[in-house]
Input
Amino acid sequence: MDAKEYLKKTSALMDGPIKTYIPDEEPMRLIEASRQYPYAGGKRMRPAMVLAACGAVGGDKTKAMPLAAAIEYIHNFTLIHDDYMDGDDMRRGMKTIHVAYDMPTSILAGDALFAKAFQIIAELDVPSDKMREILKFVSKAVWDLARGQQFDIENEHKLVSEERYTETIFLKTSVLFAAAAAGGALCGGADEKTVDAINKYALDMGLGFQMFDDYLGVAGDSSKTGKSVGNDLRKGKCTLMVTYTLENLKDEAKLAKFKSVLNNMEATDAEVREAMEIMREIGAIAYNKKAAEDKIASAKAYLDILPPSEDKDFMIALADYAINRDV
Output
């Protein structure tokens, strides 16, 4: 199973539904701003997770399509607000919403997508008990996303523990993957035990995905990632590699050199490369990569509860893709 090909097919399949829920109405400036991110395409991993989980438990994936669109709207609502908070100028080759429009419109566009997502969910064709469970998963995920974003803000310019780092990425990344997967399983009529297993699969997959994303920020190919390799060090981003280095590096001179690069946007390329070499020497980069691989192995084990199917194969392949990609 080629996860990227499956994602391409799902993304194309979702194009129509995603573009049906935001009607032309005034003020069109807000409508256009709200449409920009979800209509732009992308990997659409979370909608694919909804549909795959539904299919993997034997459900009718057409009934899960609205939830897949709603989850994508929620994901994009968070991106709009994150871009403003982070001061980012570009996303997906376009100006970010707060730059293309303005700050008030970007906040309202995010709020509008958030509200629209729950309007869509409220119209799902599922039994009432399944609807309540879906709403619990999704609303809790949005709450946890806000907590994770606040942790991320508070972590800036600080040297946090590995536990704090893991909790932050759990909240920022894993919970929406899990809401997508568990919600899809519920749309498919799965029992409680199966929903729990699929939820845990997605939580661990999300952790592995983000850990590997951080790894690419240091060990990736900038021509493929589109990011300046090592720039996370300049920004003072406290990744697993950084926490490992700070906790295990005993050479005072190297430690001082490493700290001089952290949170220093003026650090030269040579200084960043030296800091990266320090992390490599002490084993921090390998430690980060191994931690991501362990999470993915744990995630896939939860899928043993599912019978063989193409959708299960995709869920396994997606987990593998999370730690075998270059972007």
